[in-house]
Amino acid sequence: EPVxxxxxxxxxxxxPRFFDDPGVxxxxxxxxxxxAELAAALERIRSLEQVLQATGALRAGQIEALRFDExxxxxxxxxxxxxx
Length: 84
Known about the structure:
- The protein is mainly alpha-helical.
- About 60% of the residues lie in helices and about 0% in strands.
- The chain has helices spanning about 20-55, 60-65, 70-84.
């Protein structure tokens, strides 16, 4: 059975500083974290598409060809506006 090592979640030592304003450093960290999350989500979506294509549930280009009816389009617009 493999040994699993848990890493400490406590930062040792001072936080690195890249900018004079600590707020800019914090914003940079947030953007970096969001970028990493987006990259992981996109990788997972690509994997799902590959699985769906391999099982025949999805054809190549089917997502790009998808067109929404007016109700779905309005629901998506409303969701985007709510997010903003």
